[in-house]
Design goal:
Blueprint lengths: L2 E8 L5 H9 L3 H9 L2 E9 L4 E8 L12 H10 L14 E3 L7
Antiparallel strand pairs: 1-3, 1-4, 2-3
Subunit structure: Homodimer.
Pathway: Carbohydrate metabolism; L-rhamnose metabolism
Enzyme class: isomerase
Length: 105
């Protein structure tokens, strides 16, 4: 059964317009890589008071999300976004997994 996951990232102050601009023009090859990895229904929300980005996505049972960081297109995207977000010392977005505490259909 597909699984919905959520996580939090942090945008650098003053970068909301640029973040939206870059995602409005997301590369077709990255979109394709995400779909091939079994990812769908991907949304990112911004809390402008804290600069926290809240993301949700649905991943298939046989998803390949774990392999995405090793793909060339994903690494290029992360390099492209590094100047506007908080990153780890491994040059990856700082991602905090979130725990679901309530769901209603």
């Amino acid at each position: 059964m597909p699984e919905r996951i959520a996580f939090r990232m942090v945008l650098n102050p003053g970068q909301a317009v640029e973040y939206r601009k870059r995602h409005d023009a997301i590369w077709p090859e990255l979109r394709e890589a995400l779909h091939k990895a079994g990812i769908s229904d991907y949304s990112i929300w911004l809390d402008p008071e804290t600069n926290h980005l809240f993301a949700t996505l649905v991943r298939a049972d046989d998803h390949g999300m774990d392999a995405l960081p090793q793909t060339e297109v994903n690494r290029r995207w992360w390099d492209f976004m590094a100047d506007i977000m908080q990153y780890t010392d491994r040059n990856e977005p700082l991602v905090v997994p979130l725990q679901q505490v309530f769901h209603m259909e």
